Amino acid sequence: MGIKAVIFDVDGTLFDxxxxxxxAIEGIIGKFPHLFNVFEVEPVVAxxxxxxxxxxxxxxxxxxxxxxxxxxxxxFLQLLGVKEDYANAITETYVRDYPKINSPIAGSVPLVKExxxxxxxxxxSNGLPDVxxxxxxxxxxxxxxxCIVLSEEIGIRKPDPRIFRFAADSLxxxxxxxxxxxDSYRDDVIGAKTAGxxxxxxxxxxxxxxxxxxxxDFVITNIKELSSILEK
Length: 232
Fold this sequence. Notes:
Blueprint: E1 5-8, H1 17-31, H2 33-36, H3 41-60, H4 65-80, H5 87-97, H6 108-115, E2 120-125, H7 129-138, E3 147-150, H8 151-154, H9 161-171, E4 178-182, H10 185-194, E5 198-202, E6 218-220, H11 225-230
Parallel strand pairs: 1-2, 1-4, 2-3, 4-5, 5-6
């Protein structure tokens, strides 16, 4: 197919963010029992996930990352009706523990290690650097990639095609020779295709592309399917 490089998204593609968040919140419940012992686990996790959803929207709207995490924690506590006295401690605990949870997407680690023998490999992520590097290290992939491009470090966010071209330049590969793999149709597929790359949409659920004329080159429902695509 003329593919020389494979570039991956992180959250939801290589790292199971949903599982890691759930485990991190369960850990926080155990560390702050005086705040959460009146609740079942499920509503606490649900409150955090809702606060995280709102914080992602704030981040995409331009909220600075240094205030984003504090607001997320305070929203989380407000949703539960819990006093915010321990907000800073909860934020620090979450940021410390969450990226240390070894929760790769099933099959992603052996797949990436298999591909490194045949392709240049890279990462593009909109996630914050202090946790993204640690996630990749935790799942054993940090040293596998020839480039790790994080939006906060270069000031460009997906789906802006410039961040994809930046990665291609870093790999010294032309965009049409790159295949980008990610779970977000807007950020990953549309961004990569607009930059001139080929795109593989990892749709592990029932997501829809939405209204767009841009088509993914490949669609997979299991990350391990990528190996057979690249053998064609």
